[in-house]
Amino acid sequence: MKLTNRSKVVSNKEMTIAEKIYLPAIFKGMGITFKHAVRTVIKGAPAVYSYPEVQKPRAKVWRGQHVLKRDEEGRERCTACGLCAVACPAEAITMTAAERTKDQKDLYREEKYAEIYEINMLRCIFCGMCEEACPKSAIYLTDRLVDVQTNRGSFIYGKDKLVEKINERIDITSRQSEKQKNAVK
Ligand code: SF4
Ligand code: SF4
């Protein structure tokens, strides 16, 4: 059965003399390097960044560390529906749902919430499927980088690292489509 239309027919034809001496391929490669060098000089953009002191500018839609959003009243948006976990191709998301009590109305937006919500950052491939699957606009990827750690357990990010701080909101509007912006109340 044919799985894709992208299969490439491999040719067994004899190499030409130019191919055998490799020089054209070497000059072609050097041409690409030279083109980038000239472009760097003309644009004035640094070819090397002194990371981590100086960070390379990232695109607005960069997919970095996730954030679990709060609504405008500060309540957690996530209702522990599990759709993000189902959509995740890396099986990186796990959660435990709990029922909201009467005195927790200010904390959680809906009657069910995620008591535990964890993302394994070593498994995550930052594809953004969780963001797309979420019906509550609760999870977004951000332009933040995941911290370097020295043990595997530290890459399991829980709610303490994922839920945005009430006084330090994270702007994700550049990641939202117009439809999504209008849908978020
Ligand atoms: S970004 Fe992709 S891999 Fe990472 S948690 Fe979301 S769905 Fe899973
Ligand atoms: S983040 Fe969104 S999709 Fe995932 S459990 Fe919470 S509400 Fe559901």
TrEMBL record:
Task: Look at the named UniProt entry and state the broad enzyme category this protein falls under.
Answer: translocase
Q: Which cofactor does it need?
A: [4Fe-4S] cluster
One Pfam family, short name = Fer4_7
The gene from which this protein is expressed is: nuoI
Residues engaged in binding [4Fe-4S] cluster 1 = C78, C81, C84, C134
How is its cofactor bound, per UniProt? Binds 2 [4Fe-4S] clusters per subunit.
Tell me the PANTHER family matching this sequence: NADH DEHYDROGENASE [UBIQUINONE] IRON-SULFUR PROTEIN 8, MITOCHONDRIAL, NADH DEHYDROGENASE UBIQUINONE IRON-SULFUR PROTEIN 8, MITOCHONDRIAL
Q: Which keywords does UniProt give here?
A: 4Fe-4S, Cell membrane, Iron, Iron-sulfur, Membrane, Metal-binding, NAD, Quinone, Repeat, Translocase, Ubiquinone
Instruction: Kindly indicate whether the keyword Metal-binding belongs to this entry.
Output: yes
Q: Which Gene Ontology molecular-function terms are recorded?
A: 4 iron, 4 sulfur cluster binding; iron ion binding; NADH dehydrogenase (quinone) (non-electrogenic) activity; quinone binding
The UniProt family comment states: Belongs to the complex I 23 kDa subunit family.
Q: What is this protein called?
A: NADH-quinone oxidoreductase subunit I
Q: What subcellular locations does the record give? A: Cell membrane
GO cellular component terms listed in the entry, alphabetical order: plasma membrane
HAMAP family reported for this sequence: NDH1_NuoI
Q: Which residues bind [4Fe-4S] cluster 2?
A: C88, C124, C127, C130
Query: Would you say which domain of life the source belongs to?
Result: Bacteria
* Membrane topology of this protein: Peripheral membrane protein
Major place of residence: membrane
Assembly, per entry = NDH-1 is composed of 14 different subunits. Subunits NuoA, H, J, K, L, M, N constitute the membrane sector of the complex.
Function description: NDH-1 shuttles electrons from NADH, via FMN and iron-sulfur (Fe-S) centers, to quinones in the respiratory chain. The immediate electron acceptor for the enzyme in this species is believed to be ubiquinone. Couples the redox reaction to proton translocation (for every two electrons transferred, four hydrogen ions are translocated across the cytoplasmic membrane), and thus conserves the redox energy in a proton gradient.
What is one process in the GO biological process aspect for this record? aerobic respiration
Name the chemical reaction catalysed here: a quinone + NADH + 5 H(+)(in) = a quinol + NAD(+) + 4 H(+)(out)
Which Enzyme Commission numbers does its entry carry?
7.1.1.-
Domain (4Fe-4S ferredoxin-type): residue spans on this chain = 69-98, 115-144
